[in-house]
Design brief:
The chain is built from 23 helices and 8 strands. It has about 525 residues and is α+β, with helices and mostly antiparallel strands. Pfam families: PTS_EIIB (PF00367), PTS_EIIC (PF02378).
């Protein structure tokens, strides 16, 4: 049972990438629009005073904000696509239809049962307008629930076909036929259940807020501790996109979730300081500063004979963490060989968020320095307090460096470059892999090595990927050769949970996924 629950959570976590990874793009466009409409910046760059440029900036910000107030349908479509095993396009289209059926069914039932509140009294009533339809305010949870339901039915019946006159009702059409009564019944049931859930969510949010800095610390530490399971997204996503992360009215619109509030406040020039809820998205301090200090500590404690090799490993990993916020290459370099360092890293991540909150810093950089520059600098110091963010970051760098260096030396930890002779605990760089590859047969390419290390084609049931990891389901995980995956394919880490295998490759994982699909004769979805 435990393994089934873990498998389901991993699939759900992977499916969430489809909608979640789109939203930072919207944030960056809003930030760009804010640059074009920033009056203070226009004093130094006269070009920005042009009406066309200013109008274009307002169009960018305003149009992208519309995404934030319609997250339910975005998560519904995105999650159904992410969870669908086959015919993903049909799953997405079906989920759109189901969403429309649901909100209309719920509106009609609320009207029949005399539970619709007057539209001028919506605020605080637990109801809201969704695509012009008045329903219970379920926010992003509505999209998640419907996305999962659609995916479950779709995966079971999307290939079911009929003969004769009923042939037209097979496949994806059958899925929608089944979903119509299911959706209507679900709308009726949730009209009674969701008010209770709303009260529960509100209580949980109040508890976390009442916990103050302790709650922030637990949030920040857990978000890192769950990295090995691949489920860390389940920690921060509810705070970023639901009422758990706060509720605020901006420009006459009500926004739920720390990131939604943040983006809306970015686009609103009347907001003089960002809301305190932004702290839930201040998860990037360790990515830009702390882990860089850890890299320096690991390099300085490396055995002299290995310094050149480890420098080639740690510099690209540090640059990737600083620029893009991808931390796995660094974290997996010490996570399994020195787990105490990973625990310390998680604790420091939580504490860094507490420090930002104590000093009232409203700047964020969840995905590295590029995000930090685009999100914060155009808004100004008063609105974000970004110089203090950098100052705290420098302190974070120093603490990581000193603590990691002390622990590595004190406990003789086998971090990269400190392995005993003959041990294969270090990670290999891309150049290391190429050197090994040149000595093999010409037809022994990367994909074939990966497939072989996973137990062969017949052992692989499913191939998928997320932002940084190749995610697979295998028949027999005991056949997986972790040493080969790390030493000969430049994997940063390998995680095995039952039949689920995750191989960490970083930002190049999408290309590797395509190569593996080609090797297996599959079509990448």
């Amino acid at each position: 049972m435990k393994q089934k629950i873990m498998d389901s959570l991993q699939k759900f976590s992977k499916g969430m990438f489809v909608p979640v990874l789109i939203l930072p793009i919207a944030g960056i466009i809003i930030a760009f629009g804010n640059i074009l409409t920033n009056a203070r910046l226009a004093e130094y760059i006269p070009f920005l005073k042009n009406d066309i440029v200013n109008g274009f900036g307002k169009m960018l910000s305003g149009s992208l904000v519309s995404i934030l107030i319609n997250l339910g349908i975005i998560f519904c479509v995105g999650l159904s696509i992410g969870l669908a095993r086959k015919k993903k396009a049909e799953a997405g289209f079906t989920s759109l239809l189901v969403f429309l059926v649901f909100i209309n069914a719920m509106k009609i039932f609320l009207d029949i049962t005399k539970r619709l509140v007057p539209q001028d009294q919506l605020r605080g009533s637990g109801q809201a307008m969704v695509l012009g339809i008045q329903v219970l305010d379920m926010g992003v949870f509505l999209g998640i629930i419907l996305g999962v339901v659609v995916a479950l039915i779709h995966n079971k019946y999307c290939e079911k076909e009929f003969n004769g006159a009923f042939q037209i009702y097979g496949g994806s059409r059958l899925v929608f036929i089944i979903l119509i009564p299911v959706t209507v019944i679900l709308a009726v049931i949730l009209s009674y259940i969701w008010p209770v859930v709303q009260n529960g969510i509100s209580s949980l949010g109040n508890f976390i807020n009442a916990s103050g800095n302790f709650g922030i610390f637990i949030y920040g530490a857990l978000e890192r501790l769950l990295i090995p399971t691949g489920l860390h997204h389940l920690i921060y996503t509810p705070f970023l996109y639901t009422s758990l992360g706060g509720v605020a009215e901006i420009g006459g619109q009500v926004f739920e979730g720390a990131r939604n509030i943040y983006f809306a406040e970015m686009a609103d020039p009347s907001v003089t300081q960002l809301s305190a809820s932004v702290i839930w998205d201040a998860r990037g301090l360790a990515k830009m500063f702390g882990l860089v200090g850890a890299c320096l500590a690991m390099y300085q404690t490396t055995l002299p004979k290995n310094k050149a090799k480890i420098k080639a490993l740690l510099i690209p990993a540090a640059v990737t963490s600083i620029l893009a916020g991808v931390t796995e290459p660094i974290e997996f370099s010490f996570m399994f060989v020195a787990p105490i360092l990973f625990v310390i890293h998680s604790i420091l991540s939580g504490l860094s968020m507490v420090v930002l909150n104590v000093f009232g810093v409203r700047a964020i950089g969840p995905n590295g320095i590029i995000d930090f520059l685009l999100y914060n600098l155009p808004l100004g110091i008063e609105k974000t307090g970004w110089p203090m963010y950098l100052l705290i970051g420098v302190g974070d760098f120093i603490i990581y460096y000193l603590l990691f260096k002390f622990l590595i030396k004190k406990f003789k930890l086998k971090t990269p470059g400190r392995e005993d002779e003959g041990e294969e605990t270090k990670l290999y760089t891309k150049s290391d892999y190429k050197e090994k590859k040149n000595g093999e047969k010409a037809n022994n390419n990367l994909a074939s090595i990966i497939v072989k290390a996973l137990g062969g084609k017949e052992n692989i049931e499913k191939v998928d990927n997320c932002y940084t990891r190749l995610r697979l389901i295998v028949k027999d995980s005991s056949l997986v050769d972790q040493v080969i995956l790390k030493s000969e394919t430049a994997a940063n880490g390998v995680i095995i949970k039952g039949q689920n295998v995750q191989v960490v490759y970083g930002l190049k994982v999408t290309g590797i996924r395509k190569e593996v699909d080609d090797e297996l004769g599959l079509i990448s979805e």
